[in-house]
Each structure stands twice: as structure tokens, then as C-alpha cells.
Design goal:
The protein is of the alpha+beta class. The protein has 26 helices and 27 strands. α10 packs parallel to α26 and α16 packs antiparallel against α25.
């Protein structure tokens, strides 16, 4: 994933050839992807040790031509049968797949060729490619839908007289003419609008397999053939009635359903797509002191100076050199309001410049940016497949075989009554069934939920984790950096008799400002809060910091030059500090001058988040490596009664195992820095905080913002997601259980079957779309 940060850069000549290569003859274009620089655009190394060349790669691919769970299973089987492919997983809802392959045994063109031979077109998961493919697919679908709709209305106009008149009222010649009009109006529908169904069905027959398009194409063919025979031979076996109106209606309904499903699918994964395609195509780079040139962001290197205009996104991590602006980081950190940025402050790739032009120096590009790491996590979510969806995929092909058998048996049963009508009953059975609704029920809901959470700054690494989180009965929090902020807060100041508090705090702040130690930063911040940005009336000289101990310096206080020390009790030559908490001490030539007592700063929304979880029946615990009295104090502030301090990582893991053995489903919330074993041992886990190393975080959820409310919000969203999943599964099962018997019993005409099938999938996606906006509850 070396160039993962350039996901929206303009396509190179090689990429353009791959993008324009036709599905049937794309071998030459795919071979171009065997060059390392090309596959790095959509692949990342897996399982390699630092400093060693990776042998295995994980590629993210978009598949064109997918329509149902059976398609996903077919692609997975084709990939798994290709030499050198170690693992393959395809998501039927997002049309994305994850392929793990061995560089020593295969190249991307080889396993992509296997997908081509299976009848589907693989495209690297690249912003330009995916967007172009989606737009072209939508345009084609809209054209086919328009032709089907126009012809359907005309066919219905010519078919209406046969419905509103008694037998014999229409002259045979007129009736024959009306049938011919319907025939010719149905031909464009058959040849143009139905072409995707027929091409996919022919592919299935050629490869001896079955997918959703096979029964649909079979139903369309039977309807047209029976109606055509009735038109050519009115007195023949099938001349009693024609069904061109049913044909055009269910084609229109099916296409309308697929088009709406395509649009809604884009919306359900809209936040994921928006997050993965945030980078600009190009940026202005400084050539010399007064000249700028616009270059592809692929050509950026560390140290380049770039100019980002209002309305553009930052293409790399960097530091602002000149200019003041507002930056929107909502999709990257969950911060809803634009943040001010000025010279000396950092900006991150993918954030949006809103106010004014700024000049920045590039510090990190490609996979080194935080944005690239976020994208990698999002791609994992878009290609993962929940357990329920895997079960639905496995049932898809047996279900379709059952449908074909049911249609044949229904036709045989009704044949003795009326052969033409018997064939239409079989068509209704073929068209009415909808395994798509079953296969979309779970992934559509979970993708919509993951997209909503991404907009709020919560990344979902595994969709399956949403199901686990919904059933959590116990949640354990780490203390430092999770319930509390990363920095300390000045709580109180004690001074030597006769020394004013303001003077002691000012002297300490002068020494502390040059140190990055958390205690020094807390003292400096405390002084700044009390005195604002006003200059302190002290002059610093000869400052020296002893790592982990303190700072020594000479400070001019008016006309007096004083030797000062700021640091630990031992550093200042004092007795051991009090056990009540952390403190920094200030000493001069006479000895102790002041003590600055600090406390951990509880996050402002910690108590609300804990209350929301407990109100929902979740037991909340605090597991901390800090002293028990400190853990208990923070627990009281947060409203957590069950606290346990002095825990090593192994003891935290042991406490969690005990809870799991007692039947609890445990979630763990940590900072992702030193909680790795505990996060891995939990049933579901959160890596919390802005400092989370995304490339190493193995948690199921990564909270980019500093808001604990996001934890409770994610838990509520998971429960809501599973309610929607159960509704979708219930509807899909009930629909097929009712619709198939109705069609077999001849209580559902073919046009109604087409409407029912389209509506079934559409209802599932619409219901999932309710999750696309996460509800704010706290």
C-alpha cells in the first residue's frame, strides 16, 4: 500500500488502458498491472517483518457484473482456484473483494484473468476507476429502464382492449393487428433492455453454473416465445392469449428495482466511498521562489512545498508555512466544526481547506499518512462478510436450483389444463423468487451503519463486530488516555510562606515551557490559563533538562538572578512526594519553594457515556495499571463503581477471561498503544484516541475523535443495526415463503411476480438506508 494515499490521482497511460479494456479482451490491459508500481495502488503487504521484502499482498478489487450472492460465491471460487491465491472474500452488497496472494507464485493479471474467465470484470479499487465504472453502469441502466418504460406504456395501450371487452367483441383482424403491434414494441425491450439478463444467463450456461439472472432470463424468453407463437399462429396451441404486456411490465419493474438498488447501494456505502476518495487529483507545487506548477499528487515527495487553494483537499500530511485558514476534518476525525490552522500547525491528508490559500511543507506521503491508514481500515470493512451473509451466500445456489425445479413441476402440473397458461405459471415462479433480498439483508444494513459511523469518526474494521457489539453485556475501560485525557491538569499550588502563588507559578512556567514532559506541560498550561498570553516578567538563562527528572535554569527575577530547579522531589533534594497523586516541585537556593499538584483530567463526556451504557444494561468496569486509589478516584468521577487498579496487561486479560467464562460478552476500550493483548482477547474491542497507531491497531473499532460519547453511540448503532438485519431477514424469508406457493398455485401473474421481486430487494435496501445516519443519543 505504498501509494495508497494517491487513491484519486489521475490515471496513468497504463491505468487508462486497463480502465478502457473490454471485459472479453482485457488480458493485455490486465498484464500492465503486473508492474509493481501499478499494483501498489490497490495492494498492501501482509505478514511481512520490518526491513524485509513482503511476499504476500492483500489487494482490494471492484467487480463489474455482480448482481447477487451467487455471483459473489462464483467469483470467490474462481479466485480460490487460481494458483498463488491464498484467500479471497467478496462482498455481494459492496461489490468489492479482498484477495490475498503470493508474489512468488502469481501476479495480479493471473488471478484477474480467472475472474474474467468466470464472466466478471475486475477493476482495481481506485477512485477514478470505481467512479467511472459506477457512472457508466448507472447510465446504461437508466437507458435500458427508459426504453423498457416507454415500450411498456405503448404495449399496455394496445393490450387494454382485450381486457375491457367481452370475447368476440373485437374483430379477429383487429385483434391480430393489436398483437403484432405489441410484438414489435416488445422487440426493443427484449434485445436492448433485457440484454444484461441474457448475457449473464448465457455466461452461466456456458460455465455450467446458476445465478439469479438465469431463471429471470429463462422467464423472459419463455414469455416472449409463447406470445410470439400466439401472434404468428392465433389458432395454434398457444394462440389463446399473448403476454407481451406482462413481459414488458416485469422487465421494467426488474430494471427499476436494480437501478434504485444501485443508487441506494451507493448511498449506503456513501461515507465509506467519500472517505476513501478524499484526495485531490493534483496540487500546485513550488518550482522556485515565485513559480508554481500543478502536478499529480503521485509526484509529491517529502519536503516539497505546495499551495492548497480554498475548496481543495490537502494531498499529504504536512505543516503550514504561511496563511491562515479553516480546515474541515469531519470525515477523518469526527470533528463537526472546521478547525483553525495557522503557520506552524499540522494538517492531515484528506482534510478540506475551506477559507483561504495556504502554503504547506509536505512531511508524509503515501502509506505514511494517517489518511492512507484510515483507507486501509475502511477497505477491510467494505470487503468483510458477516457470518449471516456467508450463510446466505452458501444457500443462494441451492435455492436457485430449487426454483428451477419448482418452475418445472408447476409447468407440468398445469400443462394439461392449458399449455400456454402452464408456461406462464412457470414464468411467474421463475421471476417471483428473490434470493437477492436474503443475501443483501445483512451486508446492506452493516455497510450503511459502517458508513454512518465513519462520518462520526468511528472506523469499523470488521462488519461482524457490529453483531458482537450488539450483544455486549460488559464493557471494560482503560483509564489513562481513555477515560482521562492524555495530559494532566494543575489542581492546586502550595508555596513557601511569603511567596505569592502567581510568582511561584510564573517562575515554574518559565522553566516548564521549554520541556515536553507531561508535568511541565501541565504547569505551563495552568499558568497560561491564569495569566493568558501575557509575557512573564522573568528572564530565563542556562536551562538544562535532565530526562525524566526535571529542569534546572538561572532565572532573572527583577534585579535578582536565581538558581531554580523544577521536577521530582528527588531531583529537588526533597523527601518522597505525597502518595495522594502526581506533583512537581520548584526549589531555589534556600530549598523548597512551591509544589504543583496535578490530576488526570476526566474527559467531559465520560460520565454521560458511562451512564448511557449502564442505562442500556451494560456492566461497566475500569481496569487500570495505575495505583488502585487513582483508579478508584477516576472511577468515582466517571460513575464507575467496579474499578481495579495496579493491573498489568496480563492481569487485565485474566480479569476479562474470568468475565467471559462466566458467560459475559466483553468489550474492551483502550488507547491502542499498550492494550494490544487485552484488545485482542476481548469479544469486541475499541482503540480510542487520536494517537492510535492505525497501521498496528488490531481493534474491531477505531475511534478517531476524542469523544467517549462515540463509544456509547456505536453500541446503540450496533443494536439498531441488528434490529434492521433481523427485519430484513424476516422479510426476505417471509416473502419467498409466501410468493413461491402463490405463483405455483397460479394466484400471481407474471407481471406481479416481477414487481414483487423488484420490490423485495428494494425494500431490504431501503430499510438498510435508515441506518445511513447515526442517531445522536447523548
Amino acid at each position: 500500500m505504498q501509494a495508497a494515499g494517491a487513491l484519486l490521482s489521475p490515471p496513468s497511460e497504463m491505468e487508462a488502458q486497463v480502465l478502457s479494456a473490454p471485459p472479453a479482451g482485457g488480458a493485455a490491459g490486465l498484464a500492465l498491472l503486473d508492474e509493481r508500481d501499478e499494483w501498489l495502488e490497490f495492494s498492501r503487504p501482509v505478514g511481512s517483518q520490518p526491513g524485509t521484502a513482503p511476499a504476500r499482498w492483500e489487494s482490494t478489487v471492484v467487480f463489474e457484473g455482480m448482481h447477487c450472492a451467487a455471483c459473489a460465491v462464483t467469483i470467490e471460487q474462481a479466485l480460490q482456484g487460481a494458483p498463488g491465491v491464498i484467500e479471497a472474500e467478496v462482498n455481494a452488497a459492496s461489490h468489492r473483494g479482498r484477495v490475498v496472494w503470493d508474489e512468488g507464485a502469481t501476479k495480479p493479471s493471473a488471478w484477474m484473468q480467472a475472474v474474467l474467465r468466470a464472466g466478471y470484470r475486475p477493476l482495481p479499487a481506485h477512485g477514478v476507476r470505481a467512479s467511472a465504472e459506477r457512472q457508466a453502469q448507472t447510465r446504461k441502466m437508466l437507458w435500458r429502464l427508459g426504453v423498457a418504460g416507454l415500450c411498456m406504456m405503448q404495449v399496455m395501450m394496445y393490450a387494454t382492449p382485450s381486457y375491457v371487452t367481452a370475447p368476440g367483441q373485437i374483430e379477429p383482424d383487429i385483434e391480430h393487428l393489436l398483437r403484432w403491434a405489441q410484438f414489435w414494441l416488445s422487440v426493443p425491450v427484449l434485445l436492448f433492455s433485457c440484454w444484461p439478463f441474457f448475457s449473464n444467463a448465457l455466461r452461466d450456461l456456458r460455465l455450467r453454473r446458476v445465478s439469479m439472472d438465469l431463471p429471470v432470463a429463462l422467464g423472459m424468453s419463455i414469455t416472449f416465445v409463447v406470445s410470439s407463437l400466439g401472434t404468428y399462429e392465433p389458432g395454434g396451441l398457444f394462440g389463446h392469449e399473448v403476454y407481451f404486456d406482462s413481459l414488458t411490465m416485469f422487465v421494467f419493474f426488474l430494471l427499476a428495482g436494480r437501478w434504485l438498488e444501485l443508487r441506494l447501494r451507493d448511498r449506503t456505502a456513501g461515507a465509506l466511498e467519500a472517505l476513501m476518495h478524499r484526495l485531490p487529483e493534483s496540487v500546485e507545487r513550488r518550482v522556485d521562489a515565485n513559480a508554481w506548477e500543478r502536478v499529480s499528487i503521485r509526484r509529491l515527495r517529502v519536503g516539497d512545498v505546495i499551495r492548497v487553494l480554498p475548496g481543495e483537499s490537502f494531498p499529504a500530511d504536512g505543516e503550514i508555512l504561511s496563511g491562515n485558514t479553516l480546515v474541515d476534518e469531519a470525515l477523518l476525525t469526527g470533528e463537526s466544526t472546521p478547525l483553525p490552522r495557522q503557520p506552524g500547525q499540522a494538517v492531515i491528508a484528506g482534510s478540506h481547506n475551506q477559507a483561504a490559500p495556504v502554503v504547506a511543507r509536505v512531511d508524509r506521503v503515501g502509506a505514511d499518512t494517517r489518511y492512507a491508514q484510515i483507507v486501509a481500515l475502511m477497505e477491510q470493512a467494505s470487503t468483510s462478510k458477516p457470518h449471516v451473509a456467508q450463510l446466505a451466500d452458501r444457500l443462494a445456489k441451492p435455492f436457485l436450483i430449487f426454483v428451477l425445479l419448482a418452475a418445472a413441476l408447476a409447468c407440468a402440473w398445469w400443462w394439461s389444463f392449458d399449455p400456454g397458461h402452464a408456461l406462464m405459471v412457470a414464468v411467474a415462479v421463475l421471476v417471483v423468487t428473490c434470493p437477492c433480498a436474503l443475501s443483501l439483508a445483512t451486508p446492506a444494513a452493516m455497510l450503511a451503519s459502517a458508513g454512518a459511523l465513519a462520518r462520526d469518526g468511528v472506523l469499523v474494521r470488521r462488519l461482524q463486530a457490529l453483531e458482537t457489539l450488539a450483544g455486549v453485556s460488559e464493557m471494560a475501560f482503560d483509564k489513562t488516555g481513555t477515560l482521562t485525557r492524555d495530559a494532566f491538569v494543575l489542581e492546586r499550588v502550595e508555596t513557601r510562606e511569603g511567596v505569592p502563588r502567581s510568582q511561584a507559578l510564573g517562575l515554574a512556567a518559565v522553566l516548564a515551557r521549554g520541556s515536553l514532559h507531561p508535568v511541565s506541560r501541565a504547569i505551563a498550561d495552568g499558568a497560561r490559563e491564569e495569566n493568558g498570553d501575557a509575557a512573564l516578567p522573568f528572564e530565563l538563562a542556562d536551562a538544562h533538562e535532565v530526562a525524566g527528572m526535571g529542569v534546572t535554569a538561572r532565572v532573572r527575577d527583577g534585579a535578582v538572578m536565581r538558581e531554580l530547579r523544577l521536577g521530582s522531589a528527588a531531583f529537588c533534594g526533597l523527601a518522597a512526594g505525597p502518595a495522594e497523586g502526581l506533583a512537581g516541585h520548584l526549589c531555589d537556593e534556600r530549598g523548597w519553594l512551591a509544589s504543583f499538584y496535578l490530576r488526570e483530567d476526566l474527559r467531559e463526556d465520560a460520565r454521560l457515556a458511562v451512564q448511557a451504557l449502564m442505562a442500556g444494561g451494560v456492566r461497566v468496569r475500569l481496569l487500570s495499571g495505575d495505583r488502585p486509589e487513582q483508579a478508584a478516584r477516576v472511577g468515582r468521577l466517571a460513575g464507575i463503581e467496579d474499578t481495579r487498579g495496579g493491573c498489568s496487561p496480563a492481569e487485565k486479560l485474566s480479569a476479562m477471561r474470568e468475565a467471559q467464562q462466566s458467560g459475559a460478552t466483553v468489550a474492551m476500550v483502550g488507547d491502542g498503544l499498550n492494550d494490544g493483548p487485552v484488545l485482542a482477547g476481548a469479544d469486541v474491542s475499541f482503540a480510542f484516541g487520536r494517537a492510535v497507531p492505525l497501521a498496528r491497531a488490531r481493534a474491531d473499532f477505531v475511534v478517531l475523535s476524542g469523544h467517549l460519547a462515540s463509544i456509547a453511540q456505536t453500541w446503540r448503532q450496533a443494536r439498531r443495526t441488528m434490529r434492521i438485519v433481523r427485519q430484513n431477514l424476516g422479510w426476505a424469508v417471509a416473502y419467498n415463503a409466501v410468493a413461491v406457493p402463490l405463483a405455483v398455485a397460479d394466484w400471481m401473474p407474471a407481471w406481479a411476480a416481477g414487481l414483487g421481486m423488484a420490490a423485495s430487494s428494494l425494500l431490504v435496501v431501503l430499510n438498510a438506508l435508515r441506518l445511513a445516519s447515526a442517531r445522536k443519543t447523548i
